[in-house]
Amino acid sequence: MEGRPEEESELFSRAQRGETAAYEEIVRRYQQLAFRTAYVITGSAAEAEDAAQDGFVKAFRALDRFRPGAPPRPWLLRIVANEARNRVRSTQRRLGLELRLAEGFRPGDAAPSPEAASVAAEDRGRLLGLVNTLGEQDRLVIASRYFLELSGEETAATLGIPEGTVKSRLSRALARLRARYEEPPGV
Amino acid sequence: MFELEQELTALGAALEWPPTPNLGPRIGSHLRAPTGVIHFPTWWGGRSRWALAAAAVVIALVALAIYSPSREAIANWVNVHTSFQQVPHLATPSPQPPGPLGQRLGLGGMTTLPDAQKQLTWHITVPSALGQPDEVYLQPAPDAPALGEITLVYAIRPGIPVAGQTGVSVLITEARGAVDQNFFGKMMGPGTTLEPVTVAGHQGYWIAGPLNDFFFTDASGGVRSDTVRLAANTLILDDGGTIVRVEGNLTKAQALEIATSLG
User: Quick check: pTM over 0.90?
Assistant: First the structure.
């Protein structure tokens, strides 16, 4: 079992006892998720970095309130997302989410023909553009579920709403996106 | 709809995200730093905060002298740099941290009772048993329940221990809405107990032990979740349509005395 990653519950227990090395490892494991979540909310890499950083520090101070054995992702996401929302509010502005398609991305196992790859990239580009035209609530719930691949519970924690509201909000957002997506381009 | 969801998932996998910063080491050194010493490295290369502040002022003056920008441009410029400067101002873990106590608890914007009352359409109740709050925070919707949420922060009060390292004895949070006992069930940790109480004819609940989250119906009819800030005991009261939450290391008798004095 040499080299096996330490169990999260043990890491959290050590961090709760004040071991900063254990907490550093927790940060390392979750920093990408925290940063991207904050980025989706703020639309700014610099603000997202600050929000994730402040969020992790606040989470460390709140470790005594973390229930042993509870899933850490919703707990951490709630704190980081709250920090990101506070930053958006304090700066009185929210930048548009500027996600781009990665160059040279090839989905699936089999290499597609150049024509098929071009069509797929075009479709995705259009779909991303349509997501960016949605209202903030719609965009956030779609980005949380599909781009960040958060669970319903994690999305609820990130958006600060009940899980039931996530379902209804996501359903309405998808309906709006579908309506726009099915319109012929250029309409 | 399923096809669209698949396409969104595939789109998510094809996105180019900004590079993730390596936060572990810098947070670790911050947590290990002695109180009052900040060790967050930045791309400024370890210069002192005073040097950074002085440089920022010089750059601002030069830029203003050269470009004569509009008021809006100045506001935007200041906004950008203010947000950058927030990084070194993280509070250090200390039993008695400097600065406003509530800023560490994510309660919204700091204000005063008169100013908060002007911005709310409903009446803020203040417990005479505790006197005037030491700090007041207002969180507007949508980050708070519909019609906003107010939090009164009480630092040290005789006979009430400070909760953890917060420096806070009692927090009182108020929002318009309705509470339902059924919402509490899954939110209570092991060993936490709930007891219905009545305060001046109003229905309330005394929760002894930690309460993770708190659900209630806000003024818009939507179910809201709110985080209980202090890992202590909580009294929740429906005061004529205002949900009042009293948190602190309080006995039931102390909490009821505070609730009875609300007015």
Answer: no
